[in-house]
């Protein structure tokens, strides 16, 4: 299996998109199914955000200072998704705003993943060597093992607090 950082992140995106499509196609009354799908979305997004925020973004920012602005925009986009995930994690699928909030999460994250895949990843691949991308990927695989899976876990909360205070 490849440890190329971009390949790994794209694989995550694919899984996340699959859940988004399932949610969108679930139908008006599929409350239990939607609750389960959102639970899974929150888990995948919490892990994915953790490895990007704690590894991919800081590494790329250090190695390719020219694309720092893209990294800063990504932190902000992740922050918006974090807030929505944290709110959804406290809601029940029967709540009036559950579907609407999930739709906004899907729209935001879809936009962000498209931007990463069509603009940011190509810049990163052009700027970094294959070996560097494999090393970053190998570190992300390690980090994934300790990554928070729920927004309420301390390592996820710390990230949210840092985003507000720093
Ligand atoms: Fe991202
Ligand atoms: Fe991503």
Automatic annotation (TrEMBL):
Hemerythrin-like domain location: 5-124
UniProt xrefs under Pfam families = Hemerythrin
Domain of life, per lineage: Bacteria
Q: Which residues form the signal peptide?
A: none
The entry's protein name is Hemerythrin HHE cation binding domain-containing protein
């Amino acid at each position: 299996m490849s440890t190329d950082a971009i390949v790994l992140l794209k694989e995550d995106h694919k899984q996340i998109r699959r859940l988004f499509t399932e949610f969108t196609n679930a139908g008006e009354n599929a409350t239990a199914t939607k609750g389960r799908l959102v639970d899974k979305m929150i888990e995948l997004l919490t892990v994915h955000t953790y490895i990007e925020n704690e590894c991919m973004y800081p590494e790329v920012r250090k190695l390719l200072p020219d694309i720092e602005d893209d990294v800063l925009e990504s932190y902000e986009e992740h922050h918006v998704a974090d807030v929505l995930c944290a709110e959804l994690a406290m809601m029940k699928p029967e709540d009036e705003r559950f579907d609407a909030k999930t739709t906004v999460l899907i729209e935001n994250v879809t936009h962000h993943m498209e931007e990463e895949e069509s603009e940011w990843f190509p810049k990163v691949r052009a700027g970094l060597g294959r070996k560097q991308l494999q090393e970053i990927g190998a570190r992300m695989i390690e980090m994934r093992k300790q990554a928070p899976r729920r927004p309420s876990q301390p390592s996820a909360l710390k990230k949210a607090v840092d985003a507000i205070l720093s």
